[in-house]
Each structure stands twice: as C-alpha cells, then as structure tokens.
Write a structure and sequence with these properties.
The chain is an alpha/beta fold. The protein folds into 2 domains: 2-45 and 296-421, Lyase, Ornithine Decarboxylase, Chain A, domain 1 (Beta Barrel), CATH 2.40.37; 114-289, TIM Barrel (Alpha-Beta Barrel), CATH 3.20.20. It has 12 helices and 21 strands. The chain is globular. It starts with 15 loop residues before the first strand and ends in a 9-residue tail after the last helix. The structure holds ligand LLP. Ligand LLP binds at residues 70, 73, 91, 114, 174, 176, 211, 214-215, 249-252, 288-292, 327, 331, 385.
Length: 431
C-alpha cells in the first residue's frame, strides 16, 4: 500500500481540473460523459486546441506565415474543421488524408503534401484539386511528379525536404532528421536537386522544407536545423533558384510526464531572432505542428473491468487497450492515468492493462491508484497519435469521440460496431 498521491489540478493539462473530486474538462464532468456515451471514449477540449494554436499564432504574428496542422496526429473531421476554421492549413501524407482534408472544408491551396512514398494516383488527385505544395523527399519522386504534372499540362509546386542531419534528441522511432533516417534528401545533394527541379518543365520550385523529429523538448535542435537550412537557401539562391517559403516542419513536444518543451511562442521568438539576424526576416514561413496542437487537448476515458492482484504484480484490467492507445506498446510511451472521481484512502500500485491478447497491451505501469471495478479512469494527453493510430485488432471497434466546447459536448465520431468492421468483407459462396 502506498499513500494517496496528491493528484492536483496543477499536474493536469490546461482545461482539465478536479472540481469537488470530479474531473472536469472545461465546464463538463467527464463522469457524466462516460455515463452517457460509454467507454472507451475520447474527449477533446476545443478551447485547449485553440489555445495551443494561439501560442503559435502569437509567436508568428506580423510575419508572412502558414501553420499547416500535421493531420496525422488526429484526423477526425471535426478536429480538422475546428483548426481549419481557426486559420490552419493542413500537412497531409496520403490520398486518404487529402480526401479528409477536403471533406473538412480546407482550401486546397493551404494543403502541403509530405511523405516519402506518394503514388502517381495521389499526385494526380492533389494536382487536380490544386494543393499548395508537394514536399518532395527523393530525386525519384521529383522525376515522377514532373512527369505526372506534365501529363496534365501543369506545373507542380514543389519544395525539397532536406535531411539536415541534426539530432532531435527524441525516441529513435520518431527522430527523422538524421542521416540514417529514410526521410528527406541528404544535405550534400540538395543544391543539385534544386538545379534539376528548376529545369523540369512540370515543376515550379516554391520552397524548402525540413522536419527533424517529434516530441522535441529543446530549442537547440530547431536552432541548428534553421542554420543549416538557411545556409542551403543561400547556396540554392546563389545558384539562381529562388525559394519563396521556408518550412520548418513540426515536432514540438508536449508535457506527458513533467516534460518541459519550450512554449510555441517563446520558441518562435528565438527562431525569428535568428531568421532576422541572418537576413531572412521577410521570408514566408511554413510550419507543420501536429502533437503540440492536439496532444494535451484530449483524454481517453476507460472503465475498470477487473482487479487482478498477484504475487509479483497487480493488474488493473480496463476496457481500453493497445488498439485504442497504441503509444505505450509502440514507444514505451508514458501517459498519466487518473481517476474521474477521486476516492479518499490508500492507493495500490497497479499495471493498467487492456483486454487484448498481447503482453504488450499495457497502458501504464506501476501506477498508484485507489480504484474498484466499475470506476472510470482518464488516460491523459491522448489527443495526438491515439485515435489516428487506433486499429481493430481483436475485432475491437474503435472508440467514440466527443468535442467539448464550454458546457456542451458534441459526438464527433460514433462508436464503431462489429458490423461496421466487416461491412467490406464477403463470405464465400456456400457449395
Ligand atoms: N511533418 C512531418 C513531415 C512529419 O512526419 C510529422 C510527424 C509532423 C510534421 C508532425 O510532427 P509533430 O508536430 O506531431 O511532432 N506516432 C508517433 C509520432 C510520429 C510522428 C510522425 N511525423 C508518436 O505517437 O509519438
């Protein structure tokens, strides 16, 4: 038995707080939502997303810029709609994301298309609707895009994604700007690639791009990457190819467990100082934040199904699992787990696990909680890379999603049924 931990509102993300022992998001009690909609259930705060966006908007105020939300972080239509209505463009990485972006009402000119494996079909569709920029990741892709655009009588707007070879000091799976990563064109090949692109009849060079990783909690990797990119811009322009915009990617981390990433506005103040000092102050800036806009705006509610105390480990079996929250299983990621109703008394140390038939199906290890079967818990900081990475493993339907705005909660995705899951399948004809 461990003493009751002080879960105070100060350790919770903004817009989440305990009131009379009940966990609230904005003006709504999460227990009420769990009661009404069942669990597992994702709940997002609109105010939290807009406030995260506002930090970037403040940081970049007065500059020619476009914030392109990296929609892979959470691509639910109403989330996209909220950010698009607040002025965001979108960073996409597939034809599917393009269709979602269009369905959410984006102006295609504010869409940029990243990713190492764009197919001809995806390129054609993106050109047809008139997206703002292709972030090209290899010479082979550049040539295919040139061919596809020429075939349509168009010039594709392109930016070359540079691999600046800087260490983002993050988990190896989410570090993207090192030489050994599959992303971007190596620093030393970039100028030749631009010369080549400028000579292609189906391409129009509009920018340069980099993205060095995700969950970055320090400013230095950004400052280093900026220096390297600006060095390149100088050389590329000296070679006669003008670069209208510079895209610094996404990657800014959030607080999962006392992490202390720089605030978006402070980070950008520092980056803009460097940009000014190097004489690029009037250049159009693009950024591609994902996690930092939505990560701390969402929680996943789950019900405790069984307590399974053991000799070496105590297991708390809950109704959310690795198919809903894949980050712990994939990256050993830490998410805070807190009760929706605070219960006075002693806590016990539990491993919080899901019902999926894998030992990797855990949500949190060694968590001090005072709970009983039937209690609800919230997995915090679950707004990014949870629902968008959710699967149907074990034929588990994906969770429902709610968006809270003040005192109101709107269902933005209904719970997936078993029939939804096998709708596209066919039984063999009986003999
Ligand atoms: N731009 C590009 C080209 C990217 O590849 C990514 C993320 C972003 C922007 C947005 O990065 P963010 O601001 O969200 O860090 N599933 C992992 C994260 C994978 C990130 C992939 N790329 C996780 O759950 O930690």
């Amino acid at each position: 038995m461990a003493p009751t931990p002080g879960i105070s509102s100060s350790t919770l993300p903004p817009f989440f707080a305990y009131q009379d022992g009940q966990l609230m998001v904005e003006g709504v009690s999460l227990s009420t939502l769990a009661q009404q909609h069942g669990t597992p259930l994702f709940v997002y705060s609109r105010a939290a997303m807009l406030s995260a966006l506002a930090a970037y908007q403040r940081g970049l105020a007065g500059r020619d810029h476009q914030i392109c939300y990296a929609m892979k972080a959470n691509s639910t239509l109403a989330i996209l709609q909220t950010l698009v209505q607040a002025g965001c463009g979108l960073d996409i990485v597939s034809g599917g994301e393009l269709e979602r972006a269009l369905a959410a009402g984006i102006d295609p000119a504010k869409v940029i298309f990243s990713g190492v494996g764009k197919t001809r079909r995806e390129m054609r569709r993106a050109l047809e609707v008139g997206i703002g920029c292709f972030n090209v990741e290899s010479r082979a892709e550049l040539d295919v895009l040139d061919e596809v655009a020429q075939g349509m009588g168009l010039r594709a707007p392109v930016s070359v994604r540079v691999n600046p070879n800087v260490d983002a000091k993050t988990h190896p799976y989410i570090s993207t700007g090192l030489k050994d990563n599959k992303f971007g064109i190596a620093h030393e090949d970039v100028v030749a690639t631009y010369r080549h692109a400028a000579a292609c009849g189906g391409l129009r060079v509009v920018g340069i791009d980099c993205h060095i990783g995700s969950q970055i909690t320090e400013a230095d990797p950004y400052l280093d990457a900026m220096d390297r990119i600006l060095d390149l811009v100088e050389t590329i322009e000296a070679a006669g190819v003008p670069i209208a915009h510079i895209d610094f990617g996404g990657g800014l981390g959030i607080d999962y467990r006392g992490d202390t990433p720089p605030a978006a506005d402070t980070l950008w103040q520092r980056l803009l100082q460097k940009l000014d000092a190097r004489g690029f102050g009037d250049r159009k800036i693009l950024i591609e934040p994902g996690r930092s806009l939505v990560g701390n705006a969402g929680v996943c509610l789950t019900e405790v199904i069984y307590l399974k105390p053991g000799e070496h480990k105590n297991f708390l079996i809950v109704d959310a699992a690795m198919n809903d929250l894949p980050r712990p299983a994939m990256y050993q990621a830490f998410h805070q787990i807190v009760p929706l109703s605070q219960r006075p008394g002693e806590t016990t140390t539990w491993d919080v696990v899901g019902p999926v038939c894998e030992s990797g199906d855990w949500l949190g290890r060694d968590r001090a909680l005072n709970v009983q079967a039937g209690d609800w818990l919230a997995v915090l900081s679950a707004g990014a890379y949870c629902m968008s990475m959710a699967s149907n493993y074990n034929t588990r339907g994906r969770a429902a999603e709610l968006l809270v705005d003040g005192d109101a909660a709107t269902l933005i995705r209904a719970r997936e049924t078993a029939e939804d899951q096998f709708r596209l399948e066919t039984l063999l004809p009986t003999l």
